[in-house]
Specification:
CATH class of the largest domain: Alpha Beta
Strand content: 25-35%
Number of helices: 10
Oligomer: single chain
CATH topology of the largest domain: Rossmann fold
Radius of gyration: 23 Å
Helix content: 25-40%
Amino acid sequence: MKSSKKIINFEKLSPFTKELKKDGNKIVQCHGTFDLVHPGHIIHFEEAKARGDILVVTITAEKFVNKGPGRPFFGDDLRIRSLINLETVDFVSVIPFPAAVEAIKAVCPDVYCKGKEYQNPSVDVTGNIHEDIKTVKEVGGEIAYLGSVVFSSSKLLNKHFETFSKSTKDLLHRVSKEFSPSELSKLVDDFSSLRVLVIGDLILDKYSTVSVQGLTSKNRILSSRFVSENLQAGGALAIFRHIREFTPNVRLFSLAGNEPWIDQFLKEHLSEEENWIQQEPGFTTIVKHRFVEALSAGKELSKLILGQPYRQRPPQSFHPK
């Protein structure tokens, strides 16, 4: 079987696995981020495959991974490539949801495999394992806790890869020693009662992705082909969005212009109650414009040009209707 045939789109996953079951196959499912495939994963997949006939591995799409800054370290394409080249893995599908419930409902596994560490639900700070167990039972499957060898991708990445600065790593190590997962989870939950006002500059990041063709022969000007464009929330708006994950009682006070595209952009990121932004006709909304090129392998970007803030036309995806 060619490795590319192992990739199943999420929309086709449910009918595909139903056909496999009609042929008498016992379906085993493993779900996770699998950001860094290590020996623990290899053994986990081998033990899972031994429980049935077909092993389906579902992975959380990168935009829904919530493991902190810089995660996933590897994008969807590289994680898929790592998995489809494993002999024990029969099929791989990227799941456009933050948790496993939709993946389980799509696959309807006979056996759903998790690591032995999940036998103690308190280690899962997200609490998702309870929903996983419930959903597996609803679709008529059973759960198997596997793992004769256990490693943690997050621990390996955080310790050996530059996902955090040294000061951040030191802080995280101190926190992990002082608080248990349940204690830390309670502290975070207590944030929900806080009332927060964010005050600061509204700085938007505009990314124009291009494909570099080369340099012009006469003036040595960088020649490139336009690929795509998007506008992202930065500055105080980015801080506001992070804080809103902890408490709903947060407001943003800032200054913006009256550009024709700004109202729609703000509506997509703020409710009327949250929006305390003052819009002034004589003010130019700050936009940092970057021209970038996507590297061929992975999600990393190569920054080509950083332009100065200016009064800009909206990117294509933000034209008012």
